[in-house]
TrEMBL record:
GO CC term (a single one): plasma membrane
Quaternary structure (record): The complex is composed of two ATP-binding proteins (NikD and NikE), two transmembrane proteins (NikB and NikC) and a solute-binding protein (NikA).
Gene3D superfamilies: P-loop containing nucleotide triphosphate hydrolases
EC number: 7.2.2.11
PROSITE patterns for this protein: ABC_TRANSPORTER_1 (PS00211), ABC_TRANSPORTER_2 (PS50893)
GO biological process, one term: peptide transport
Keywords for the protein's UniProt record, in alphabetical order: ATP-binding, Cell membrane, Ion transport, Membrane, Nickel, Nickel transport, Nucleotide-binding, Translocase, Transport
Domain ABC transporter, residue spans: 5-253
Keyword Protease part of the UniProt annotation: no
Membrane topology note: Peripheral membrane protein
InterPro entries for the chain: AAA+_ATPase, ABC_Ni/Peptide_Import, ABC_transporter-like_ATP-bd, ABC_transporter-like_CS, Oligopep_ABC_C, P-loop_NTPase
Protein name per its UniProtKB record: Nickel import system ATP-binding protein NikD
């Protein structure tokens, strides 16, 4: 495994209250694998990414767990080592491409600068490779674009540049947090396809954070479904989409726009996610669950292999639900 997260719990203290953002989160990402992390707003997707990257806010405390990257616990690295891990071994892409770009530096220079630093090659050669990397992310007329400033490009073009930057080291793992959310739908598909192609070509793993199960279905081999700071279901994308077990996963699938009958309204999931300052003692989803038993309100279910599932032999399909 390239990345293994074991039993990770993270809390934030703000205004004398404790927000339990992550509770015993465990999952792993294999070499070359594209894994989707899906869940509604506030489920802990970004906090998971920021913990891996060592970028948590100062009011965060890691209460429990470890994050093994190539067998080393990144939570025990010094600031300097974490910094060199970021960018060089683990690339990052966030929702808003402008935040990753220097506003007053030409595209080619930004890329060349990073390539020069990471690959330790002369600047002139780095610039030549920068132009090549623009061509690799399917930017037409790369020499011309290299001489432009970020504001001169469209949102989709900027995100392509950010992908080129993030892949320049080149990293073994790319963490992409809602990389296409700010883009319009046709551009979204192009960017996802590009990320998938590049990852396959280079053997890069991707942790793709999204609230959109449709995105997961399009590019991810495996999926981790999060709810209120917990992993509630995980497995191969095919298995989880075809045989979802957790009522929350089922609800997410039910909320997908039905391509066969586009006139159907979207099914929103009724109810609200729990208050992370005051979590229920039983299952976190029980208050919204239409199949909840008395047991579900009392006892907290943990992730366990789904009995009888196609993947049961390898134990990859797992669910945290009493009604499985
Ligand atoms: N610095 C912080 N201080 C206090 N609470 C925080 C802080 N950062 C995150 N949180 C809380 O942690 C929880 C998880 O947040 P996170 O950003 O991981 O959600 P998410 O799944 O990425 O949601 P979204 O889809 O909206 O990006 C939220 O309730 C959020 O309010
Ligand atoms: Ni987020």
């Amino acid at each position: 495994m390239l990345l293994t997260i074991k039993d990770l719990s993270v809390e934030f203290s703000s205004m004398q209250q404790t927000v339990k953002a992550l509770n015993h989160v465990s999952f792993s990402i294999d070499q070359g694998e594209i894994v989707g992390i899906v869940g509604e707003s506030g489920s802990g997707k970004s906090v998971t990414a920021l913990t891996i990257l060592g970028l948590l806010d100062n009011n965060a405390t890691i209460k429990n767990g470890e994050i093994l990257y190539k067998g080393r616990n990144v939570l025990q690295l010094h600031k300097k080592e974490q910094q060199s891990l970021r960018g060089k071994q683990i690339g990052m892409i966030f929702q808003e491409p402008m935040t990753a770009l220097h506003p007053t530096m030409r595209i080619g220079d930004q890329l060349a600068e990073v390539i020069h630093r990471h690959r330790e090659i002369a600047y002139k050669e780095a610039y030549r490779q920068a132009v090549l990397s623009l061509a690799e992310v399917k930017i037409n007329e790369p020499e011309l674009v290299a001489r432009k400033y970020p504001f001169e490009l469209s949102g989709g073009m900027r995100q392509r540049v950010v992908i080129a930057l993030a892949m320049s080291a080149p990293p073994d793992l790319l963490i992409a947090d809602e990389p296409t959310t700010a883009l319009d739908v046709t551009i979204q598909h192009e960017i996802l396809k590009l990320m998938k192609e590049l990852a396959e070509k280079r053997g890069t793993s991707i942790m793709l954070i999204t609230h959109d199960l449709g995105v997961v279905a399009e590019v991810c081999q495996r999926v981790v479904v999060m709810y209120a700071g917990e992993v509630v279901e995980t497995g191969t994308t095919d298995e989880v989409l075809a045989h979802p077990v957790h009522p929350y996963t089922r609800a997410l699938i039910g909320a997908l726009p039905d391509l066969a009958s586009p006139d159907q309204p979207l099914h929103a999931i009724p109810g609200e996610s729990p208050d992370l300052r005051n979590l229920p003692s039983g299952c976190v989803f029980a208050p919204r669950c239409d199949r909840a038993l008395p047991l579900c309100r009392e006892d907290h279910p943990v992730l366990e292999p789904v009995p009888g599932s196609r993947d049961a032999s390898t134990g990859t399909h797992q669910v945290a639900c009493w009604v499985r």
